[in-house]
Amino acid sequence: FITIPNKSSLSNVSMTVDDNYDMTNENGVMTTHLKFLYNDNTVGTTTLNISAAGTDTGSLLPYINNDVSSSYKPKTCIRINIWILVGIGAVILFIIYIIEERARRKRQRRHYNRRRRRL
Question: The pTM is what?
């Protein structure tokens, strides 16, 4: 049983493993103690027993053979400040602006020289 206030709901109750007890596994029966919390206050406790023929099975994950060398290296990570990226973007935009401005002046100069030749 759990005891909660009259106007509260069971959705406000959370369940956690009780830290005061250890989880045991004896004769194929796994036992743990649970406590029910309402606003961080214990409102009920219970003991959970799980019994199955194979509760203590080995891992089904693939394993590494002994003849395979396992030299793992930590992943490297580059940390870049956002302001560095903004600065690089501003420099690139400034270079593009200078190139476009030079091209525009060159076109104006050609146009001016053509008009001068016609006269």
Answer: 0.40
Q: Which domain holds residue 89?
A: 79-119
pLDDT of residue 5: 80
- Mean pLDDT of the 53-62 span: 58
Domain count, the chain: 2
For residue 45, how many other CB atoms are within 10 A of its CB? 14
Rounded to a whole number, what is the largest CA-CA distance in the chain? 109
Phi, psi of 87 (to 5 degrees): -65, -45
Which region holds residue 37: left if phi is over 0, alpha if psi is between -120 and 50, else beta? Answer: beta
Tell me whether residue 4 is in a domain. no
Strands 24-26 and 29-38: antiparallel
Query: What ranges in 1-119 are assigned the alpha helix state H?
Result: 82-118
